[in-house]
Structures are given as C-alpha cells and as structure tokens.
Specification:
Elements: H1 2-18, H2 23-33, H3 37-94, H4 104-122, H5 133-161, E1 166-167, E2 170-171, H6 172-203, H7 209-230, H8 235-279
Antiparallel strand pairs: 1-2
Helix pairs in contact: 1-2, 1-3, 3-4, 3-6, 3-7, 4-7, 4-8, 5-6, 5-7, 5-8, 6-7, 7-8
Length: 280
C-alpha cells in the first residue's frame, strides 16, 4: 500500500514542482515527503532539472540574440560600403574626378558588387510591413531623376549633332559643365533617397530592400551618362553607345530589383509557414 502511495505521489511531483497543482495536492505531497526519503530525492531532482532546462533555454535565446546582432551588423556594414560608393561617385563627378575614366567593365563590376551588398544587407533587415506612399513616392523620385538626366543627355547630343551653337541658353562649351553638375547633384539626391529608404527599413520595419536596389541602379545609370559624355569623341556614334551601355546597366539594376523582390517573397512565405505550423 505504501509502494502504491509512493507511485501516486511521484506522478504528482512534476506538477507540484511546477506549482500548478491544487492546494490539497500540494499538502498531500508535502505530508508524504516528511516520511519518504525517496520522494524527497525525486522532488529535488525535478527541481534541479527544471533549473537546468531554464538555463539551457536562456543560453539558446542568448545565442539567437547574438546571431541576430551579427546579421544586423553585417547589414550595416554592407549598406555603409554602398553609401560610401554612391557618395564618392557623386562627389567625384562634381569635382571632375577619376570616376569618368573608369572603363565600362569596371562600372559593371562595381554595380554588381553594390547590388550584391544590398541583397546581403536585406538579410539583416527583415521588415514585416510593406512600403507605404512615402517610400514609393521617393522611389518614383529616383526613377524620375534618372529619366531627367537621361533625357538631358540625349537632348544635348541631338543638339550637338545638328550643329547648334547654343543649348539651354548657354554656349556649347558651357553645356558640358552644366550637365556634369546636374549629374553629380542627381547622384547625391539618389544617395539621399537611398538613406531615406534605409532608415524606413530600420526604424519603421519596412520590407523595401528592392527600393535600395532601385536607388543604386539609378545612380549607376547617371554615372554611365557622365562616363560616356566625358569620353564622347564622335557625336555620331555617341547615341548608339549611350543606349547600349545604359540599357545594360539598367538591365543589371532590374535584375537586382527582381532578385530582391523574390527573396522578400520567399522570406515572407517561409515566415508565414512557420507561423501556421506554430498555430497547428
């Protein structure tokens, strides 16, 4: 009879240790343990196991927090490199620096590198909210800035080809510096757009990584305009080279935007599946 009583008490010990049993059960267990060494020992073991499990869970949470911090630091580092690149690009154009002397292949390599950095940074900022009208409006501003510079460049070349002496009310030799300043300021404006989108991702939990790719692509299209314009020796051949090279840069940019959208969709789908699994 005493053995059976011990079996019953031992079945109640886990709920007693967790504090989820009734007062009557607690009093019964405590009364039994006054005269039973084996049940007291089992109660102590259950308490120790509970403390150990809590410590293991805490260590796991601490490890996950460290991983999350590392991923975010990686995202900050990637975005920092892109910001430096875009800022240097705009300042170099305004100061007639070395940027315009880079070869077309060098521009492509730097563009692809920036796109990869932006895609990597997106893994550190998994926003849960879709971009709203402020983010989309600034994104549209990036595209309009790019189109404005492209149209100015094409118009200038057309005027040069037809032998115009004045363009935009300026003598022909003064139109180059004017357009250069337009391109440089456009690049810096696009950098501001990039910083705005980045801040919205971090502070407002927005999933707009594809907007960062769009800003980078627009910056490099503007840079390509300046590079081709600086190396323009034969206006007759300029337009074909301009269309071909800017189209390649824009295509790479669109691939980056598409890849970012796809990664975001896959991440949200994975999160929704995990959430559904938790509910089930």
């Amino acid at each position: 009879m005493e053995k059976m009583r011990c079996d019953i008490i031992q079945d109640l010990i886990p709920s007693y240790v967790d504090g989820v049993c009734s007062d009557a059960t607690r009093e019964c267990v405590e009364e039994h343990m006054k005269s039973c060494e084996e049940c007291r020992r089992m109660t102590a073991l259950c308490r120790e196991k509970g403390i150990a499990d809590e410590q293991i869970d805490q260590r796991g949470l601490d490890g996950l927090k460290k991983i999350k911090r590392l991923i975010q630091c990686k995202g900050y580092a990637c975005c920092g490199l892109v910001i430096f690149n875009l800022g240097y690009m705009g300042i170099s154009i305004l100061g007639n620096g070395e940027w315009s002397r880079l070869s077309f292949s060098a521009h492509l390599v730097m563009l692809i590198t920036c796109m990869c950095l932006v895609l990597l940074s997106g893994m550190g900022f998994k926003g849960k909210r879709t971009p709203g009208w402020p983010e989309l409006t600034v994104g549209a501003g990036s595209v309009l800035t790019e189109l404005y510079i492209v149209l100015l460049t094409v118009y200038l070349v057309k005027e040069i080809q037809r032998g115009a002496d004045y363009v935009w009310g300026r003598e022909l030799y003064r139109t180059g510096p004017f357009l250069t300043w337009q391109i440089g300021l456009g690049n810096l404006a696009l950098l501001v757009c990039f910083l705005f989108h980045l801040s919205r991702m971090i502070r407002k939990d927005k999933n707009g990584n594809w907007l960062l790719c769009l800003d980078v692509a627009c910056c490099y299209v503007l840079s390509k305009c300046h590079s081709i314009l600086g190396n323009m020796l034969e206006p007759e051949k300029f337009l074909n080279a301009f269309i071909r090279e800017t189209a390649i840069v824009a295509a790479i940019g669109l691939l980056g935007v598409g890849a970012s959208v796809l990664i975001g969709m896959m991440s949200r789908r994975k999160n929704s599946l995990h959430s559904g699994g938790g509910v089930l």
